[in-house]
Specification:
The protein has 4 domains: about 30 residues; about 375 residues, Distorted Sandwich (Beta-galactosidase, Chain A, domain 5); about 90 residues, Pdz3 Domain (Roll); about 190 residues, no CATH class. It is α+β, with helices and mostly antiparallel strands. Strand 6 and strand 7 form a beta hairpin. Strands 18-19-20-21-31-27-26-23-24 form a 9-stranded antiparallel β-sheet. The longest helix is centred in the last third of the chain and has 27 residues. Helix 7 packs across helix 14, helix 12 packs antiparallel against helix 13 and helix 12 runs parallel beside helix 14. It contains 15 helices and 33 strands. Helices cover about 30% and strands about 20% of the residues.
């Protein structure tokens, strides 16, 4: 092996190793830090900590606590409020905690989603999409339905606290207050045991449930489905929570409280004002139908009554086939009334959604609108007449970071995930109306100890309304909103928000959007013809390579001509070994004589670069490619063209620094086949196009390029399988083009005139011109 090449490789490997060691020394990983792996379907447990500025912490009010007097609508307003204190110090209402559902999980119903509401805080606990097009990509166990399970009062069993319409549980006849004691003869002793038992099942499997209903045993049969995508769901430390308890989860979505009451103001670090417990106590349910739910909470110490109402959009019967009908939303209303006998200055605080998807955390990337990196969940906000602002987890994780938008007319604010979003849109009479004195992004829960996991940080937002004076028995402070929670489809998002500031702005391709959008339009058109995005990508590749055929053929001919010129180049290198300037001039003359441009082979690469980046961005953004399989839903391998193909889970046999998915060598928990095939074709194609080395320097450069393919393979290992399909098809096209060209003239056939002969001919021609000039 060449000595210089050996030195180069040793130095390159040493630099990589030293870099890893220095990073590990400066930023030692926390052994307790969570790994970037698909979140397991386990119950997260943790002790709640003190709230920090700009951080939302769980309120610890226990649902079984009671207060001396149940709240009444005619509570005296002059009752002295308790001192300001955290929410968990205020007694909870006597009303029991309950769960109710809106909509349906049935794709044939007039609802696009199933919403689970929790009376504790009158919060949104979970939003599941009903279309089979949007399934959970990481949990492949059987789905019975979200039951909000709890431990049965008597020993043994899981108490069912909600049954969503359209779920397998509802189809099986399961009811609220049923106690599941066995699943397929396997004893179920608790709510956690039920979740563990369901994790061992598969979609399509029929299971036998043994339940107790009003003390009597009953047998039910349920056919499990595949778990739907939850746009909102409970989590703790970026892990899903399936068994909800007061202290084991981050705050739920769309909690509210009183931010100002006369001279008393709630600071950022407080949970609630004294005498207020809107976040942690159960609210009274005053209306509950399949598409409307209304909650009420009376605050006797303040003489206020608060009502929250959710109304789920319903698809008209004649529009059920329209997948872009704007029904991925809730009409949301908050109303604060003065039920006392004195006027009060009141403002409320409203928090945003939490627990959006972080699927594919070990490979996923988002396009950032700023120079900083994007997280898997970012805050995107737009005000009337302004531009979009994006705040990522890395910024919110910084304890010194402060951001607040004050006294501006809000168009919308959203938590933006990779393929879905949850947005809050004020429904105002006048687009320029200002409802909020402060709008700010917030982090939810603690910042991950491992800096590589910061992108998993849960983020949300907080709105403080402007102050309103409420007269006794007078007009309430009432605001209406739309809550969008669904997939990021352009035609769907364009129907939400003001005409000049729709949610369509959430779809962002970066600098190469001008290439990505037409490519996606063509790709979708091909998909309509063939019904498979894998084939559609191959068709797109054929179209792109066909349009570039003149350039690629010119590149192939240029590479072939370079091979033909190799004997002459080698001879010039030997002749001018110690005279580099003369050698360069002689080579330039040789290239000019044979009409060869050394940079001609680069043109195709420059043309293909925007196409490559555009397709890469398309796979990162387009929700239609999420969950699109290469072969079919029945085959797990390459079942999502927007993700790596995930051929085999090798996490049990490879070191942790490889399987955890972070860092340069963090390849993730799966062996991926398509990137290896892609790199193999690249190497083959490189050998076909690259001429034999003319000197030692050229030989060293070729060896460097070959071994750089190894590093490229590492960087390419986690790219989307759809992108690999494109490169594989493109490489095969290029190889076929090369094979179809006529073979190059072998060296020494005399097909090329020697440089000396060509020089003599040129010299004679020049002599004749000079003689004519003298005459």
């Amino acid at each position: 092996m060449d000595k210089r090449f050996t030195i180069f490789m040793v130095v390159a490997v040493a630099i990589v190793i030293v870099n890893q060691l220095v990073v590990s020394w400066l930023f030692p990983p926390d052994p307790a830090a969570k790994k970037i792996l698909p979140p397991p379907a386990k119950v997260a447990k943790a002790e709640p900590g003190a709230a920090k500025p700009d951080e939302i912490k769980p309120a610890d009010a226990k649902p079984d606590e009671t207060q001396a007097e149940p709240p009444t609508a005619d509570a005296p307003a002059d009752k002295k409020p308790e001192a300001d204190q955290p929410a968990d110090a205020v007694a909870a209402s006597a009303a029991p905690q309950k769960w109710i559902s809106l909509g349906s999980a049935d794709a044939d119903s007039p609802y696009r989603m199933l919403v689970t509401l929790n009376s504790r805080g009158a919060a949104v606990e979970r939003i599941e999409l009903s279309s089979p097009r949007y399934r959970d990509l990481e949990n492949r166990s059987g789905y019975l339905g979200h039951l909000a399970p709890g431990d049965a009062p008597e020993k043994g069993g899981a108490l069912v606290r909600v049954v969503g319409p359209g779920t397998p549980a509802a189809a099986a006849g399961l009811q609220v207050d049923d106690v599941i004691t066995a699943l397929d003869k396997q004893k179920v002793s608790s709510a956690v045991a039920l979740i563990d038992a369901l994790e061992q099942t598969e979609p399509g499997q029929s299971i036998q449930l043994t339940v107790k209903r009003e003390g009597e045993p009953k047998e039910l049969t349920a056919k499990l489905d595949r778990e739907p995508l939850s746009v909102i769901r409970p989590e703790f430390d970026s892990q899903r929570v399936d068994v909800l308890r007061p202290d084991n989860h981050d705050p739920l979505s769309f909690l509210m409280t009183i931010q100002q009451y006369d001279e008393r103001t709630l600071d950022d670090g407080d949970q609630e004002l004294g005498g207020v417990n809107l976040r942690g106590a159960p609210w009274e349910i005053i209306e509950s139908t399949q598409n409307v739910a209304s909650f009420r909470r009376t605050l006797p110490a303040l003489g206020l009554q608060v009502v929250k109402t959710y109304r789920l959009e319903k698809v008209p019967q004649d529009q059920l086939a329209d997948t872009d009908f704007p029904a991925y939303s809730l009409a949301f209303e908050v109303a604060i009334s003065n039920v006392g006998d004195k006027a009060h200055q009141v403002a409320y605080r409203l928090d945003g959604p939490t627990g959006l998807p972080i699927e594919g955390a070990w490979y996923a990337n988002k396009v950032s609108r700023t120079w900083g990196s994007a997280g898997l969940r970012d805050i995107v906000v737009r005000f009337e007449g302004g531009s979009i602002d994006q705040i990522g987890p890395a910024q919110l994780a910084d304890p010194d970071y402060k951001k607040n938008w004050a006294n501006a007319s809000l168009d919308y604010i959203a938590v933006d995930a990779q393929y879905s979003a949850a947005a809050l849109l004020p429904v105002k009479y006048t687009i320029t109306d200002i409802w909020f004195a402060n709008v700010k992004p917030t982090r939810v829960g603690a910042v991950p100890a491992d800096k590589n996991n910061v992108k998993l940080l849960d983020v949300s937002f907080r709105l403080d309304s402007i102050i309103a004076e409420l007269q006794p028995g007078g007009k309430p402070l009432k605001h209406r909103f739309q809550i969008f929670a669904g997939p990021k489809k352009p035609n769907l998002l364009a129907q939400y928000g003001p005409p000049n500031a729709t949610l369509n702005d959430l779809i962002y391709y970066g600098w190469f959007g001008v290439v990505a959008r037409p490519m996606l339009a063509i790709l979708h058109a091909f998909h309509l013809l063939v019904g498979n995005y894998g084939i559609a990508i191959i068709m797109l590749t054929v179209l792109v390579r066909g349009c570039m055929f003149p350039l690629s053929r010119k590149q192939a001919l240029s590479a072939q001509k370079m091979q033909e010129l190799q004997p002459e180049i080698k001879r010039l290198n030997e002749k001018y070994k110690s005279e580099p300037e003369k050698k360069t001039k002689a080579q330039q003359e040789l290239f000019r004589q044979h009409n060869y441009n050394p940079l001609g082979g680069c043109l195709l690469a420059f043309v293909q670069l925007p196409i490559f980046v555009g397709l890469y961005r398309s796979l990162m953004v387009d929700v239609e490619l999420r969950q699109a399989p290469l072969f079919g839903d029945s085959i797990r391998w390459a079942s999502n063209l927007a993700a790596p193909d995930m051929f085999w889970n090798w996490s049990a046999v490879v070191p942790d620094f490889i399987s955890h998915g972070t860092g340069f060598f963090g390849l993730g928990p799966y062996l991926n086949i398509l990137p290896l095939l892609t790199i193999a074709l690249f190497i083959w194609q490189q050998k076909m196009f690259m001429p034999p080395p003319a000197d030692e320097q050229a030989a060293l450069q070729q060896k460097m390029m070959q071994y750089m393919m190894i590093f490229m393979g590492i960087m390419f290992f986690k790219v989307a399988s759809g992108l690999c399909v494109y490169f594989i098809a493109s490489s095969i096209w290029g190889i076929a083009e090369r094979k179809l060209l006529p073979k190059a003239n072998p060296a020494g056939t005399g097909a090329l005139p020697s440089t000396s002969a060509a020089s003599s001919t040129n010299g004679a021609a020049a002599s004749k011109k000079r003689q004519k000039g003298r005459k």
